[in-house]
Amino acid sequence: MSWSNPWFIAALVSVIGVFHLEFIATLLNLGRLGRAIPEALAEVFSEETRAKLADYIRESTRISFTQDIAALGLVVVFWWSGGFGWLQSWAENQGHGPVVTGVFVIAIIMLAQTWLSLPFEAWDTFGVEARYGFNKTTPATFIQDHIKGLTLMAILGLPVAAVLVWFFETQALAALYAWVFIAGFSILMTWLSPRVIMPLFLKFQPLEEGALREAIFALARKLDFPVQEVSIVDGSRRSTKANAFFAGFGKTRRIALYDTLIQSHSQEEIVAILAHEIGHNKCRHVPVMMALHLAEMGIMLALLGWVLKSPDFFAAFGVRGTPVGMGLILFGLVYKPFGVLTGLLGLAMSRKHEFEADAFAAKAVGSHEPLTEGLKRLSRDHLAHPQPHPLTVWLHYSHPPLIERLAALTKISL
């Protein structure tokens, strides 16, 4: 490591710079909690709710910020004490080839990151989330979920890591091959996740015959949106927060409703929320976002292929040679600012899509009122920030703030 190495400077600026950007955004966002609530949101957030959500957001932010500081400190200490170089040398001394060694290094660092985050997740789940009435997860379920997550990471993640390391170790067109491989894997996981992975964590049961089921299928027929089944998910076993999602392709589409959504929302609101989700499909948002994601992935892999050929890049972290497995980890530190920039476009596009899906839903059900009431209830029940700072919205929000969505809905011509 040397201050004369431009990669060292770039990595340091990347790690410290992104942290400070997030810190500034956090302070600005917290500062807006004391603002007077706009008249349009006065009926949504009572005085009692405002006080409660302010405390909840502050406490949640405290945990997140403490975790970020701890992670930053550990990375810098490990880096500047020669930890990356020591880990690479130790892994190489085990006598395996470059692919196995690379996967070994990746696995160790990913496992360390997972374990280091556990205390903060437990603090959030059994501290803040429980104190504000959201958490329903038991310690046994919490532990089981993490064991399942680590198992899946080993079964799915390690083979993917091995393929990527092999590409960049042996192939001249590694970036292109890796891009094709990751694209195919992403599509496979989109199909596989609701059928194999999600049932490991959530219990799916068919929605019983009744008015809600009939209303959902009537909406699907009206909008020419084929649905194979509607399921109820036992989300209440982990949290009181409500959710709903679509999964599958073509005629195998399935709708999943969290039981908490059914418990807290009217039939009209649920149908409007589902119409919003159908709107994403009808407006072709899914392929647009997938294309954007793949374009970003292509840029990232091209940069990765270039960086992995530079001994100076590895030397900036105290690593000798150009070991690909370690390079995949280190590249993530340098790529942070580029990731923020490319992420901005995706988030802006996503917020635009939410407005379009809201408009589609209002027209589909013949009124903006059901969706408006559903959005108000979701924001209130989830203790969402009523007036997030524009910088925070810009950096993190995939959905527009509530007040903007409500204003847009009232202007829709039905």
From TrEMBL:
Protein's cellular compartments: Endoplasmic reticulum membrane
Gene Ontology molecular function: any one: metal ion binding
Cited Gene3D superfamilies: Metalloproteases ('zincins'), catalytic domain
Cofactor(s) of this protein: Zn(2+)
Keyword Transport appears in the UniProt entry: no
GO BP annotations, alphabetical order: CAAX-box protein processing
Domain CAAX prenyl protease 1 N-terminal: 35-203
Catalytic residue positions: E277, D358 (proton donor)
UniProt-annotated binding residues for Zn(2+): H276, H280, E354
Record bears the keyword Signal: no
Transmembrane segments: 6-28, 69-87, 99-118, 150-168, 174-193, 288-308
CDD domains according to UniProt: M48A_Zmpste24p_like (cd07343)
Major localisation: endoplasmic reticulum
Keyword terms: Endoplasmic reticulum, Hydrolase, Membrane, Metal-binding, Metalloprotease, Protease, Transmembrane, Transmembrane helix, Zinc
Peptidase M48 domain: residues covered: 206-412
Family: Belongs to the peptidase M48 family.
The protein's name in its UniProt record: STE24 endopeptidase
Organism: Prosthecobacter debontii
Lineage: Bacteria, Pseudomonadati, Verrucomicrobiota, Verrucomicrobiia, Verrucomicrobiales
